[in-house]
Amino acid sequence: MSAKKLWDKGYSLHPDVEAFTTGDDYTLDRQLVRWDALGSVAHARMLASIGILTDREFDKLRAELVRVVKLWEQGKFTVEPEDEDVHTAVENHITGKLGELGKKMHTARSRNDQVLVDTRLYAKEMILDIASEAAGVAGALLDFAEAHKGVPMCGRTHFQRAMLSSVGLWAGAFAESLVDDLLLLRSAYEINDQCPLGSAASYGVHLPIDREITARLLGFDRVQNNVLYANNSRGKIEAAVLAACMQVMLTLSRISTDIVTFCAPEFGYFTLGDEVALGSSIMPQKRNPCSLELTRARAATVLASLLQVAEITRPLPSGYNRDLQETKRPLMTGLATTLGALAAMKVAIGAIAVNEDNLRRGCSSEIYATDRALELVQEGMPFRDAYRKVAAEVDELADRDAAREISKKTHTGAPGNLGLDKAAARLEQQRTFWERARQNFEGAIAELVGH
To answer: For 128-142, how does the pLDDT look when each residue is reduced to its tens digit (9 = 90+)?
Structure first.
C-alpha cells in the first residue's frame, strides 16, 4: 500500500506524473530526516505553548520524534519513493505510532515551512563543518609558510620568470585567501541563520503562533520576519551559501594547479608523499596527484551548482513555486563537494616535501632584474632610465644570494616580512567565531531533544 500523502484528498496521480514530480527528491531527503524530526519537535513545543497541544501530548510527540532520529542514525529509518518526501515519511510514522495525536502535528504548518527549516538546519551544520576544515587548511598553510619562509622560489607573472619570491610567501598567500573565504562563509552562515517556520504557504496562518519560540529552540539567531520573503528567499540563501563555497573552491583550485605544476619533474620544487600519490594501471613509475586534479574539476561542480540555483530562482514569481524543489540537489552537492575538497587538501599540504636545491636552481639571474633597476634608482638614476638600462643588460646580471635578497624585502607582506603573525591572528578570530557558533547551535539542539 502506498504511503498517504500530506496533500491527499482522495484521488491518485498518474504514476508517470508522480514519478516525475518526486524525482530523486526522496533520496536527497534521506539526509534531512534528523532536521525534519527536530523541526517538528520545535513546532510541537510551540503548539503546546499556545494551547493547540497539551504538555502530555507534546511529551509523547517529542519522544517519538527523537526516536525517529535515533532510528535514522542506526540506518533503520529511511524515505522511500512512495513517501514522496521526508515530511510525509516522518508524519506517517508518527501517526502510525500515536494515531490521532500524530494528525495534530501539522497544524499551522506547510511543507514549505518544513523544507525551508530542514535545509537551513542542514546548511548550518555543513557550513560549520566547512569552516572548521577551511580553518584547518589555512592553519596548515601558515605552518608550512613558517617552516619554509626563507626558502627561495621563483615568482612568476604570465607564468614566466618574474621576481624573487619564497615558499613562505607562496603558502602564506593561500592561507590568507582562505581566511578571507572564512569571512564570506560567515556572511553566508549569518544570512542562513534565520528561522522561516511560521511562514506557511508564504502568507502566515490565522492562529497566534509564536515564531520566536521555534527560532530559539532550533538554535537560530533570529526569526525571518516577512513570511513572504521566507519563501522568496529559498534559492536566494542557497545561492549565497554556494557563492561562499565557490570562493573556497577557487582558492583550492588555484593551489592545486600550483602544486601539480611544482611537483612535475621539470620543476621538481615539491614532491608529494605516498598518501596522496595514486599509481597508474599500466605505468609502474607513475605518482599521480589525482586528488588535486579532482579538486580543480570539482570547483566547476560547485560553480555549476551556484549557477543552477540562480537560474532556477531568477524567473520565478513571488511565493512558493515547485521549481524550488530543484535547488535542494545543487545545494547539497556544493556543500558536500567543498567539504570533501578541504579535507583532501589538508592531507595534501601535510604530504608536500620541499626540494630546496631545485628551488634555488630555479632562481636564475634574470629574476633580479627589477631589484637591479631599483638599486640604480637608489643611486640617483630615474626609474625609466634604469628600467631600459637593465633591460638591455639582463643577460649580464650576476647571480645573487637568494636568501640575502629575500631579507632585503622588508616592507609589510613582502618575502622578508611575511606577517604570518597577522594572518594567524585573523585566523584565530575566525576560529573563535566558528567555535562559538557551533557551541550555540549544538547546545540548542541538545536541549531540544532533552539531553
So the answer is: 999 999 999 999 999
Distance, in Å, from the CA atom of 337 to the CA atom of 302, rounded to the nearest integer, reads 7
Q: State the catalytic residue, choosing from 12, 280, 364, 407.
A: 280
Cell representation of residue 426: 585573523
Of 18-22, 42-46, 89-93, 409-413, where does mean pLDDT reach its minimum?
18-22
In the beta sheet, which residues pair with residue 161? 156
Delimiting residues of CATH 1.20.200.10 domain(s) in the chain: 112-361+419-448
- Is residue 43 flagged as an active site residue? no
- What confidence score (pLDDT) does residue 281 get? 81
Strands (E), 66-211: 152-157, 160-166, 194-195
Domain 15-107 in CATH 3.30.1490.190: no
User: Residues 158, 206, 411, 451: which is the catalytic one?
Assistant: 158
Instruction: Give the tens place of pLDDT for each residue, 302-317.
Output: 999 999 999 999 999 9
What does DSSP assign to residue 327? G
**Residue 28 region, left (φ>0) first, then alpha (ψ -120 to 50), else beta?**
alpha
| Residue among 201, 364, 158, 361 nearest 268 (CA) | 361
Task: Say which range, 346-355, 394-403, 427-436, has the weakest mean pLDDT.
Answer: 394-403
| All CATH 1.10.275.10 domain ranges in the chain, comma separated | 15-107
- Global model pTM greater than 0.70: yes
Tell me: pLDDT of 10 over 80. no
CA gap 101, 57 in Å, rounded: 7
Q: In 109-158, which residue ranges form alpha helices assigned H by DSSP?
A: 111-147
Which residues are bridge partners to 272 per DSSP? Answer: 352
Active site residue 411: no
- Rounded to whole angstroms, the Cα distance separating 325 from 339 reads 23
Handedness of CA 88, 94, 99, 103 (dihedral sign): negative
C-alpha cell at position 424: 594567524
- Mean pLDDT for the stretch of residues 341-364: 96
Look up the CATH superfamily of 112-361+419-448: Fumarase/aspartase (Central domain) (1.20.200.10)
CB 147 within 8 A of CB 117: no
Describe the chain by its helix, strand, coil percentages, rounded to 5: 65, 5, 30
What local confidence, expressed as pLDDT, does residue 9 receive? 57
Over range 162-184, report the average pLDDT: 98
Cα separation, 132 vs 339, whole angstroms: 9
Residue type, 276: V
